[in-house]
Amino acid sequence: MKTKKNLVLAIAIFGGMLFTVQATNIIDLDGQTTTQIEKKKFKKPRSL
């Protein structure tokens, strides 16, 4: 019973590490993403 709990704990820790690695790859920490917002000129609709 004790070895079964240890195995489940080891699988949970390993799965957590894999999730963390995948999340950091998605976020892309290379600094290629910018936080600036591209501003476009707003076109005012004409009244009828």
Nutshell version of this structure?
The protein is built from 1 helix and no strands. The protein has one helix at 2-27. The termini are far apart.
Characterization of this structure:
The protein is an all-alpha fold. The chain is 54% helix and 0% strand. It is built from one helix and no strands. The longest helix has 26 residues. The mean pLDDT is 77. Keywords: Signal.
How would the blueprint of this fold be written?
Blueprint: H1 2-27
List descriptors.
single chain, 48 residues, mainly alpha, 1 helix, 54% helix, rod-shaped
| Mean pLDDT, all residues | 77
Low-confidence stretches: none
Task: Characterize the biggest β-sheet.
Answer: none
Q: What is the total tally of β strands?
A: 0
Helix/strand order, N-terminal first: H
Put simply, the count of helices is: 1
Residues in β-strands, percent? under 5%
| Rg measurement, Å | 24 Å
- Which structural category do the helix and sheet elements fall into? mainly alpha
Please state the overall shape, judged from the principal axes of the Cα atoms: rod-shaped
Distance between the termini: 78 Å
Proportion in helices: 40-55%
Keywords: Signal
Signal peptide: 1-23
